[in-house]
C-alpha cells in the first residue's frame, strides 16, 4: 500500500488517503450467524456500503436453527434467551412482540432451565424406581451449595488445591460425595441414591457447558462466565425470528449463501508471499447465490485499487473465487478454528492465538425430540431424569461407543402440549453425542424407547411416531455446539482469540507483549500504524477481526455473547473510520 505520509493528507491519518482515492473500505464477514449478522448490520447502519457476508451453508442463523413441523417450531440449536436485564436478544425479541405468546411457565427463573417451570422433575433409576421427592430436594440443595462454591475460586480469588486438579467435575464430585458420606442421618440406601445422582447432575451440567465432561472444565475460570439477571425466555415462534429481525436491515445482495471460504490470505501488502490471483469480482458468470436472489443497492464489487496499491486481504472461496478486502470479520466457530486454522489462514496465525485456540474448549450438545401419539407421563411431570444406580462410585463420564446412550441425562417435556403436541426433548453431550450422530433415526428411536421403558418401569411405552435430532458435532461448518473454558485455559485466552490481526506491534513484539493489549481497545484513525520492521511497508491495521460466542470473555456460549461480539468488531472499524465518515467522504 502506498504510504499515506507521502500524500497530501494529514500525516496523522494514515488511512484517509487511500480511502479518498477509492471510496468505501471493503469489509467481508465470514458467517451469517448472530455474530456475523450483528456486525454487518452495525456497519451498514453507520454508513459502510461495501459489506459482504459469506455464509457456507444454505441458510442464515448459524447455531440458531428452528425447524417447523406442523404447527410447532422446534429448536435444534439455541432455545432460551438467558436473562432479560440488559440482554440485547431479549430487548430485540420483546420490542418486536416475539414474547407475547410466551407462557408464564416458559419464563423460568433458575440456573437449569426446563421447557416449563411448572410441574416437577421425575428422577427415575435404571431399576424402574422413582426417587422420592424429599430425597431429590435434599440432594438438589446440597449440589447447589457446592455449585456456588465453584464460582468463588474466580470471583474471590480463592486458590485451587491440587486435589481438585483445577476441575469443576473433580471438585464437585468429591465435595458432594464427602458431604453425603458424612451425613449421620441418612441410611445407606439413601446415600447410595444420592451418590448416583451426582453423575446425573454432572451430565446435565456437561450438556449446559457443552463439554464432554465437567472434569474438563476449569475450576479457576468457571466463575468468570456471567449470568444476566432475569428469567429465561422461550420464543414460541422460533429463535430464528431473532435472526430474521437482524437480517431485515441488511440488503439481500449483501448475504451470499452457499459460499464456503477456503482460506483468508492476509497481510498481503507486507512483502510476504502473495495469495492467489484476483478474479474480477462481480463480473462474468459468477453466481453469488445472494439471499432471496436479490441484487442492487450498495457499491459495485469490482476491483477499485490503484496499480501501486495492494489489497491487504484476499478471501479465497471454495469455488475458487477470490474476493479482495480491506477487512475480514471471521465468525466461524471455535470447533472450525481447531480443525482448520492451519489451512484457513495464510500466513498462519500467531503462536499465541493458536495456543489459545488449542487451550479453549468446545464440545457437542445435541437434542433428541421424540413425538408420541399420547403422553405416558403424568400431567405434573416436566421432565424425566435418568439416574444409573450402578454409577454411585463412578469417577468418569466416558462410555464405550456401544453404551453411548448412557450419556443421555434425561428428557424434558415440551410445554404447552397445545402448541407442541406430546413431545419429549432428550439431551446428550460429548463424545457419546458424536456416536449418536452416526446412528440412523430408527436406531436412536429404538434405544430411547427402551430407555424410557426401563426407567419408568412401563414396558408398554410405544415407539415415538416421529424423531428429530441435531448433529452439531459432525457438521463441518460448526464442529461443536459452543465453547467453554477448559482446564488449562482462562479468560485471557478468550481475549487472545478475539485480538485483531495484524498486531499493532511488529510480529516479534506482539508475541512478547500481546497480553498488554486488551481486545476491547478500539484503534482510532489518528493512530499511525506503521510497521516497526524497516523491510516492510505500511501495515494496514485490523485486517482480520474475530467474533462469535467463543470470543466474548463474560458471555461465551450464549446468543447474546455472539451478538455482542459482532457489534464489538464492527465498533472497532466504525471507530477506525469515524473521522472519515464525519467528513462526509
From TrEMBL:
This protein's UniProt keywords: FAD, Flavoprotein
Coiled-coil annotated residue ranges, if any: none
Organism: Rousettus aegyptiacus
Region (Disordered): 269-307, 505-539
Lineage: Eukaryota, Metazoa, Chordata, Craniata, Vertebrata
An MF annotation (GO) of this entry: polyamine oxidase activity
Keyword match Cell membrane: no
Pfam families listed in its UniProt record: Amino_oxidase (PF01593)
Domain of life: Eukaryota
InterPro entries recorded: Amino_oxidase, FAD/NAD-bd_sf, Flavin_monoamine_oxidase
Protein name: Spermine oxidase
Gene Ontology biological process: spermine catabolic process
Domain Amine oxidase: 34-268, 309-574
Listed PANTHER family: FLAVIN MONOAMINE OXIDASE (PTHR10742), SPERMINE OXIDASE (PTHR10742:SF416)
Compositional bias per record (Low complexity), positions renumbered to this chain: 506-518
Named cofactor requirement(s): FAD
